[in-house]
C-alpha cells in the first residue's frame, strides 16, 4: 500500500519535471509512537526511506531530506532517524 503511494508521487514528480524533491522523513507514524500506526514497523520505515531514495536516484532528481516527527523517548527515536541515513547511504554510496 505505502509502496504504491510512493511510486504514484514519483509519477507526479516526473510529469511536473521536478528540479528537487524535499522529503520529510517523519517518524511519528512509527508503531511505538503515540500518534503512530501499529503496523508501521522500524523495518517498514527503513523500506519507505530506501524506496524514496531509490526512486529519486533512478529518476535523477536531486533529493533533500529532513528528519521530522517522533514523539517517543529520545533513545528510541534517534535510531529511527539514523536508519534514514543508513537507507540514504545504502542507495547513494554503497558499492554495487
TrEMBL record:
Q: Where is the Histone deacetylase domain?
A: 9-73
- The superkingdom listed in its UniProt entry is Bacteria
- Name used for this protein in its record: Histone deacetylase domain-containing protein
Starting at the broadest rank, the lineage of the source organism is: Bacteria, Pseudomonadati, Pseudomonadota, Gammaproteobacteria, Moraxellales
Amino acid at each position: 500500500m505505502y509502496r504504491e503511494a510512493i511510486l504514484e508521487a514519483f509519477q507526479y514528480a516526473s510529469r511536473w519535471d521536478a528540479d528537487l524533491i524535499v522529503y520529510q522523513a517523519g517518524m511519528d507514524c512509527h508503531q511505538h509512537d503515540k500518534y503512530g500506526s501499529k503496523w508501521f514497523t522500524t523495518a517498514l520505515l527503513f523500506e519507505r526511506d530506501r524506496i524514496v531514495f531509490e526512486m529519486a536516484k533512478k529518476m535523477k532528481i536531486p533529493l533533500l531530506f529532513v528528519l521530522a516527527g517522533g514523539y517517543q523517548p529520545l533513545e528510541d527515536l534517534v535510531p529511527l532517524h539514523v536508519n534514514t541515513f543508513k537507507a540514504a547511504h545504502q542507495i547513494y554510496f554503497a558499492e554495487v
